[in-house]
Amino acid sequence: MEEAKLNLISFKKSDVSEIAESLGMEIAKDGAIIVNEKPATCHACGDKLRIDNLGSIMPSSLELYCDDLTCFAKYVAKLTSETTE
Ligand SMILES: [Zn+2]
Fold first, then answer.
1. pLDDT per residue over 30-79, tens digit each?
2. How many whole angstroms separate alpha carbon 65 and alpha carbon 60?
3. How far is the CA of 42 from the centre of ligand 1 (A)?
4. Any domain includes 85
5. What stretch of H or E contains 21?
6. By the 8 A CB rule, do 32 and 50 touch?
7. Rounded distance from Cα 56 to ligand 1 centre (Å)
8. Residue 41 domain flag
9. Which residue range(s) make up the domain with 70?
10. Domain total of the chain
11. Distance (Å) from CA 45 to ligand 1 centroid
12. How far is the CA of 27 from the centre of ligand 1 (A)?
């Protein structure tokens, strides 16, 4: 219920490549996620994102977050503030 309320994009690790490609991202051979021909980074901590550490995707702007809990908390806080009018 919580996820539906926040409109999170939730996914399984095994779905990451499919989701990333459906959003126009590319997956490099080493698993790095590429957006606009640049390596994608976590919007909160700046770590380079790979298939195995992608945690969250901001639906409205396609900002990406790693799977660190601190970053996830920032993601949820931002998502909540943007969806609360
Ligand atoms: Zn992060």
1. 999 999 999 999 999 999 999 999 998 887 778 899 999 999 999 989 88
2. 13
3. 5
4. no
5. helix 16-22
6. yes
7. 9
8. yes
9. 2-80
10. 1
11. 4
12. 18
- pTM, full prediction: 0.78
Rounded Cα distance between 52 and 61, Å, is: 21
**Interatomic CA distance for residues 55 and 58, integer angstroms:** 10
Q: Exposed (0-12), middle (13-18) or buried (19+): which is 74, by Cβ within 10 Å?
A: middle
* CA separation for the pair 12, 19 (Å, rounded): 10
Q: What is the DSSP letter of 74?
A: H
Please check whether residue 60 lies inside any domain of the structure. yes
80's CB contacts (< 8 A; 6+ apart) are: 6
- Give 55 Cα–ligand 1 centroid separation in angstroms: 8
Largest CA distance in the chain: 41
DSSP-assigned letter for residue 66? E
